[in-house]
Amino acid sequence: MTSDPKIPPQSQDSMPADEYPMEPSPDYRPRHPGTGKLKGQVALVTGGDSGIGRAVAVLYAREGANLAIAYLDEHEDAEETKRLVEEEGGEALLIPGDLGQKAQAEDAVAKTVERFGQLDILVNNAAQQFLDKGLEDLDEETLRRTMDSNVMSYFFCTQAALPHLKEGASIICTTSVNAYKGNAALVAYSTTRGASLAFARSMSSALVDRGIRVNAVAPGPIWTPFIPGSMPPERVEDFGSGTPMGRAGQPWEVATAYLFLASSDGSYYTGQCLHPNGGKIVNA
Predict the structure, then answer these.
(1) Where is the stretch described as Disordered (predicted)?
(2) 4 pLDDT exceeds 70?
């Protein structure tokens, strides 16, 4: 069982937001001893400084992987994630920058391969979220920023990674429950998550003959910096209580899906999407 800590009102004035001020702290710690499922592999996790990305990085390190952690500018969170990866016995390379710019995505992949000599797993996870005031008031700058972060970075990172991915490699894209059910207050964000889902499914067909698996994970309400960074305090309070399970999910509960899809446990999965969402039934 997972405890259900009450989430008090809080907010931050930045996107991406930071994990270190959140109360309670998101729970990213793996629950089980590693068994070497990713031993000798190298993963590039975008948005790996905090939230789901941090939980994935720490779990991958426990399972034997070395990590390249790409993020925008949340340096304090990134340094903590690096420490956590190293605590698990892995090596960590921090790569700050805007992956919505193609040159930065190419640089992130190049630095990963230069440091580790290979790339086996790409986790397209970096994203931004903004609460809509209504479609009429959605400004072009915010819309383009959301698209660049949540869609273009997935294209650019995958393009850069493909020359280095060999048979048996895995690409995992973060999408959202909102790609399936929609969200009137997150139209732009939900649209980008629909795009990331379609991207994963299309790339799975494009790469299956090369032995590269491409899948997606569609989290529901998870307690990450997304929430205080994009919502007013009154909406943050008791976040996730409307799910069938009655609580928000924690990052560690989502990271296990990324491990399954990256490891040989998921060897017969491509073009699929896993749904850690607290019980919301969606058309998969």
Answers:
(1) 1-38
(2) no
